[in-house]
Design a protein that fits this description.
Order of helices and strands: HEHEHEHEEHH
Shape: elongated
Strand content: 5-15%
Strand order of the largest sheet: 3-2-1-4-5
CATH topology of the largest domain: Pyruvate Kinase, Chain: A, domain 1
Number of domains: 2
CATH architecture of the largest domain: 3-Layer(aba) Sandwich
Distance between the termini: 33 Å
CATH superfamily of the largest domain: ATP synthase, F1 complex, gamma subunit
Number of helices: 6
Structural class: alpha/beta
Helix content: 55-70%
Length: 295
């Protein structure tokens, strides 16, 4: 049986680790609550903007716009959103797995790719897998700002309108609720017509033409709202990725804390048995010495 002193040292070490994981769990919980509020607010804004876009498009359905143009994919842009740090379970690995599957698909179809990765973990993981990373971003944490995301969106819009890319796929972890986050691939360009996003065109009794007059035209307003809709959807991807990372870290650190507690309990039991055996042995030695003196 292991010596009591060694078991005590190991128990103290595990206790120190438990303090760290517990602290990280509390920090992740606080960050998660703030990130979730921002994500929910952005989700509501994006949803309302999509409804407005559906109404306007129902009036100007014949209007053409470069962002709605669907063309054969010869050059695809892939944006991968991961974290800068680990200790968050399978958050980063799940996103990287989805990204590798998408890149493998484009490679088999002989489609050129432009890969942009946000997060140190994703950058190192894709480079380890011999993937050429064209652009990197490492400054996004748990509070991505729209002003920081907007230039990235503008670059993608310009590239799509000019024909340098034919498609934009974002690989990130979609946040549904605290119990469900899923690594997904979402196509942001070309923008889907509103009737495809909602599954069906708006009902005739709720068309915007029955409630509003457009000046100068519905088509001109659509040209303003389409880029805004794209930017809001892209920003929501960053927000979902941030809140999902904090949830994953919170759950991972909670599990680590619970495992440490169980290990401490087990080591304490071993320590008590070892200490009891040691004390019993010392008592037997004393009794043996007493008997020897009697002789």
């Amino acid at each position: 049986m292991a010596k009591a002193r060694a078991l005590d040292r190991r128990r103290r070490s595990v206790r120190n680790i438990r303090k760290i994981t517990r602290t990280m769990e509390l920090i992740a919980t606080a960050r998660f609550k703030k990130a979730m509020d921002r994500s929910i607010a952005a989700r509501d804004y994006t949803r309302q903007l999509a409804k407005l876009l559906a109404n306007i498009a129902s009036v100007g359905a014949g209007a053409d716009h470069p962002l709605l143009e669907v063309r054969p994919t010869q050059r695809a842009a892939v944006l991968v959103l991961t974290g800068n740090r680990g200790l968050c379970g399978g958050y980063n690995s799940n996103v990287v797995r989805q990204a590798m599957g998408l890149l493998g698909q484009w490679s088999s179809e002989e489609v050129g790719t432009h890969v942009t990765v946000s997060g140190k973990r994703g950058i190192s993981a894709l480079r380890f897998r011999k993937v050429l990373v064209d652009d990197e971003h490492t400054h996004f944490e748990d509070k991505p700002a729209f002003a920081e995301v907007a230039p990235i969106g503008e670059a993608y819009l310009d590239a799509y309108v000019s024909g340098r890319i034919d498609r934009l796929d974002v690989v990130y972890t979609q946040f549904t609720n605290i119990a469900r986050q899923e690594a997904v691939v979402e196509t942001l360009l070309p923008l889907k017509p509103p009737e495809e996003d909602g599954g069906s065109p708006p009902a005739a009794s709720h068309l915007a033409s029955h409630e509003y007059d457009f000046y100068p035209s519905a088509s001109s307003i659509l040209e303003e709202i389409l880029p805004a809709s794209f930017q809001s959807r892209l920003f929501k991807c960053f927000l979902d990725a941030a809140v999902s990372e904090q949830v994953s870290r919170m759950v991972a650190m909670k599990g680590a804390t619970e495992n440490a507690t169980g290990l401490i309990r087990h080591l304490s039991s071993q320590f008590n048995r070892a200490r009891q055996t040691q004390i019993t042995g010392e008592i037997m030695e004393i009794l043996g010495g007493v008997e020897a003196l009697k002789k």
